[in-house]
Amino acid sequence: xxxxxxxxxxxxxxxxxxxxxxxxxxxxxxxxxxxxxxxxxxxxxxxxxxxxxxxxxxxxxxxxxxxxxxxxxxxxxxxxxxxxxxxxxxxxxxxxxx
Length: 98
Description:
single chain; mainly alpha; 57% helix
């Protein structure tokens, strides 16, 4: 079904713009937008029912682990960070701010 819709849109765009005239909007962009929208609509149920909760729990676990140690207020570098670029390397004595 999606194949026939994509082919129809491509054919209409080619007919409208002509084969030599490339000043019109390009049909690839229209087809890409149509395809991504179609996939997001089709996958919405699966994402909300099966994928959203585990991803949310993973995000919260990572956030909890990185917020355990000190975080620099200016640079946002942290003692426990996922990226080595954002890691506080020296041991600092800190107090939690409430």
